[in-house]
Amino acid sequence: MKRKMIGLLLCLTLAISLLSGCKKNDANSTSGDTKPTDAAKQTNTPVPTKEASNPVEKKIQLKLGIWPEDTLTDDINMHKEFVKRFNETHPNVEVVPAYYKYAVDTFVPKAESGNLPTIFESWYTEPQKLIAGGFVADITDNLQKRGWLDTLNPSIRDLLSKDGRIYGIPRDGYALGLMLNVELFEEAGLVDANGYPIYPKTWDELAETAKKIKDATGMAGICILAKDGAGGWHFSNIAWAFGATLTKDNGDGTFTANVDSAEAIAAMQYVKDLRWKYDVLTPDPINEDWGTGFANLGVGTAAMYIAANDAVNQPTQVNGLPVDKLAMCALPAGPNGAQYSLSGGTPYMFSKDATSEEIDAALDYLEIMGKAPVATDEAIAGMKADAENRVANGVPVIPRFPCWIVQKVLDAESQIIKDYGNVDPKMFESYFNATKQSGNLRMEEPGSAQDLYAELTKVLQAVVTDKDADVAALMQKANANYQSILDDLFKK
Amino acid sequence: MKEKKKVPKTSWKKKDFLGWMIMLPSIILFAFFVWEPLIESVRLSLYTAKGIHTEDFVGFDNYLRVLRHPDFMDALKNTFVYIGWSLVIGFAVPIIIALLITETIHFRSLFRVGVYFPNIIPGLATVMLWGFFFRPGNTGVLNILLSKIGIESQKWLNNAALTIPLIVLTMTWKSAGSTSLIYMAGISGINPELYEAATIDGAGIRQRIRFITLPSVFSLAKTLLILQVIAVFQILYEPLVMTNGGPNNASISIMQLVYNYAFRDYKYPMAAALSVMICIVLIILSGIYFKLTTKKED
């Protein structure tokens, strides 16, 4: 009997401890609420002077998901300096470094459990998905108050808003261009008298240039992606140059797939030729994604890569290409001279749980970083710190894409590039000239871009692995598939 | 009569109360971490959702969407192709290994450790390792080896017809060892007198295997066959890492489709709908499994 009682007691304690374990978790997750009560309990004890000077304001937490990752010590030191300056004007804000690299498999659990940092970076493909899922905060009013709304570059504003409300602001804008590994161009003798790489101006020239490089160095001429959505994303830009439009907006809320047009098929045939006629691709395009593309370019296993200006640190700082061996030119023109650059932005977005004050604090922090549309002394100091950091780490200091249209900011930026420029502007001249031409920048295809990219990626995989692939038939199938997805999504 | 009925009832209660109390913590755990999410995902599959929060009841719309999606037929077909190839390539291998090792006299435990070895490598490491072997072009390990004997480089995983068999080969390399341990255990349970008698009667090694060993492991093999089918039906990370479902959907599996819906597109209701469908298939397969195993015990 005694033994039974002991057993029973043990079981009960186990069950109770289990349940109380759950309860403890609850308490943790609302620690934000419990803290003030703790403080309230201690009203008898003297409060720190800082708070005494401002007794009504309660301490708020700013979790910075944009904190640099642990290995980038220089960047961290720079941010520590930012925090020091930030706290001079915001004594009531506790800045918490909460480095978060956006990843699709961690994002939703983090958001749903209320553990997202106040501010974090995302990717070009994500904002609409995040807005639809209700994971990010509406910051329209905060921007309105600051007068930032009208200074946003309209194309980027579209990317970050839904039904007229804005959910993020750009860290950088970007436009796709062609990155060149100058070392390989030199090795293949493709440089002019002044040492500048002779870059291709049409897609046909690109194939020939790539062939020359492959013959001379044994390395791939160009890295074409075919692993995931990024493959279709890059391809849509090639298709535009060939005259294709991949989705038609019917204007009534529905869309028509237009993947099997003659122009799109010609563009896909061109990619197929790169693999089988010219043989200038990396060995395994279906395992190349955004990151491996930069690795190939940076370490010199591919000479050209479609990429954007906001990622110049990838081949250089991350993959070790000397800063003066990176060049960037406009994407080549198609058979009829059409030339476009796909543009978008890398956004800062805000946790859905962030309060208006927390969002304001985050926006103030961005001002200090020099990433906001203001040209205060603080902001300029932030820009300078960023430029110094880039120089120290061998990252090209080049003009930012104008995501804010404020002349004062643009002037301040160009002054900083003049002061800190560590690369020959001629290496990037063709790229920036192209993006300034009217009609050059083009936004992603309307409809359901991600599904379009998924379909295109399948075709890309088929044409780079199968010499006998029937391009027209594959594109027709992709068209039918994409149309069925569009019908599912948009027809009521 | 009444008295008699009452007595066993109360003793049942007394006897089992402590048992139930012992089980209580795990029942709570199960309810909380297994059953509740299961029921929740069935519910999710019948609704539209914002993120993972359900909004409107839409009945079987999500199921129809999944069925209409262009990738669905490819994934379903591939999953059965995976099962087919895993039976062709993977089913006999552990039996053969087990037979060979049990018939070996010297270094038996060395071989046993040897075949189990790939099992201790983490799954992801295995598929990445074989990814390097199968790389196309002249940087792949297999192609480098083949070039030494003058055979030109192959496309391996990039060849749509070879992709699935090669992925199955990788899986077999990794897990055949542990399965063969089960067979070895089964074989060691056979009464040695049978072998002695057979040997005295003049049976050779082939006859011993055919008339004693194989019939003895037959019911074990039947069970493992169903388990294998259930396991391969849920193949996910091998194609995800080695080919990402490519080229042109040649290796996409049904579980990868779930992964794509949930973690690439954040379309949780569709992912839930497809999961429920997979669950139903697996319940049927498990039913068959239970039937087979209970027969064996009888």
From TrEMBL, chain A:
Positions with biased composition (Polar residues) = 27-47
Entries under Gene3D superfamilies matching the protein: Periplasmic binding protein-like II
* Region annotation (Disordered) ranges: 25-54
Specify the signal sequence span: 1-20
Keywords associated with the record: Signal
Q: List the Pfam families hit by this protein, alphabetically.
A: SBP_bac_1
Protein known as: Extracellular solute-binding protein family 1
Q: What is this organism's lineage?
A: Bacteria, Bacillati, Bacillota, Clostridia, Lachnospirales
From TrEMBL, chain B:
Keyword list (alphabetical) reads: Cell membrane, Membrane, Transmembrane, Transmembrane helix, Transport
Please tell me one Gene Ontology term that the record gives under cellular component: plasma membrane
**Membrane topology field:** Multi-pass membrane protein
Enumerate the transmembrane spans. Answer: 16-35, 80-101, 113-133, 156-173, 216-237, 268-290
**Primary localization class, coarse:** membrane
Quick check: keyword Membrane in the entry?
yes
Q: Where in the cell is it found?
A: Cell membrane
> Which CDD domains is this protein grouped with?
TM_PBP2
Any one GO biological process: transmembrane transport
Domain ABC transmembrane type-1, which positions? 76-289
Lineage, top-rank taxon, reads Bacteria
Which protein family is named in the record? Belongs to the binding-protein-dependent transport system permease family.
State what protein this is by name: Binding-protein-dependent transport systems inner membrane component
Question: Lineage, please?
Answer: Bacteria, Bacillati, Bacillota, Clostridia, Lachnospirales
